[in-house]
Amino acid sequence: MQVYLPDELYELVKERGLPASELLQEAIRVEVRRRELVAASEKYTAALQHQVGAPSPSQRARAADVARRVVSRFHRKAG
Q: What is residue 62's DSSP assignment?
């Protein structure tokens, strides 16, 4: 397998002496795992929705509000 890197990215890797092969392997592992988790989440959500029904608009709005507050709190602690 060959991998193409745009010139600017290739130069950054070379300038910094980064181990391109190791970085690419880890990035691929992370992306594969992320996609597995997304698929599992979608499967779980579909099964749950089949069991209890779709959320109402007000339930969706409340969930979105809770998610915004969690993200906001996370950013305050991280920053």
A: H
Give residue 36's domain range: 7-78
Dihedral sign of CA atoms 58, 61, 63, 66 in order: negative
Q: What's the whole-model pTM score?
A: 0.69
Domain for residue 44, yes or no?
yes
> What pLDDT digit, counting tens, does each position of 1-13 carry?
899 999 999 999 9
Distance CA 27, CA 20 (A): 10
Dihedral sign from CA coordinates of 61, 63, 64, 65 = positive
Q: How many domains does the chain have?
A: 1
